[in-house]
Amino acid sequence: MTEEKESKEDTALVKKDNGDLEWEISYCRYALVCAYVTVIGFFLISMATLVIALRNSSVSGLAVALETLLDSVTSIVVIWRFSGPISRSMLYSNPRERVACIACGSLCFLVSLILCTRSAISLVTRVYETPTIDLLYVLSVSGTLGLILFSAKLFIAAKLGSLSILTDAISSGIGALLAITAIGAYYANVWYLDGAIGILAGAMLATYGAGIVTYEMCSGDK
Predict the structure, then answer these.
(1) Hey, CA dihedral for 194, 196, 40, 29, is it positive or negative?
(2) How many angstroms separate the CA atoms of 101 and 212, rounded?
(3) Which domains does the chain have, with CATH numbers?
(4) Per-block average pLDDT, block size 10, for the chain (222 residues)?
(5) I want to staple 105 with a disulfide (CB 3.0 to 4.6 A). Which of 39, 74, 76, 212 is the partner?
């Protein structure tokens, strides 16, 4: 009787483990879908912004295109992080997660430097380039897509406990914030709003990026 009870308990534990692994694999696939959408979507948005910026000789447009392109690169890191046969050992691979976090954190720090430089120049010179209608359309798409991806990635990161996905989510969220701010500054006719929010967002990215790189490098030494 005791052996039969223990056998049932073991079977229940195996089923529970298999069930946990199934939903973990599902969230891993969702993370990859979000990453691929980010890479493709933000790459196209970056190229569209680049064409518009070159056509209008817009320096700020070039900076936005570069920032958007770097946002898509963080998702490429996430794709690398979760590539290969999906298993529990892959999902919770500390070496891969550490490398991905360091790479994403470094990219966040790089984006923050570009962002703070562009915003500081805008505030010091008090020059605000009025975005063209076509650039506003592109920014609207970028902001909407960024908000959707930010929410999805944040949810998936919480479910999987992944810092690399969380970092990618923050990158998408900052991109969406900047796009919405640029549109708001245009319609509110407040020249310093875009620069001020840009410096704030850049400082947040730099702090987070430096923090996660330091944390992962120190934890790797232990």
Answers:
(1) negative
(2) 7
(3) 2-221 (1.20.1510)
(4) 45 45 83 93 89 74 76 89 71 79 87 84 74 83 91 92 89 85 77 81 87 82 52
(5) 212
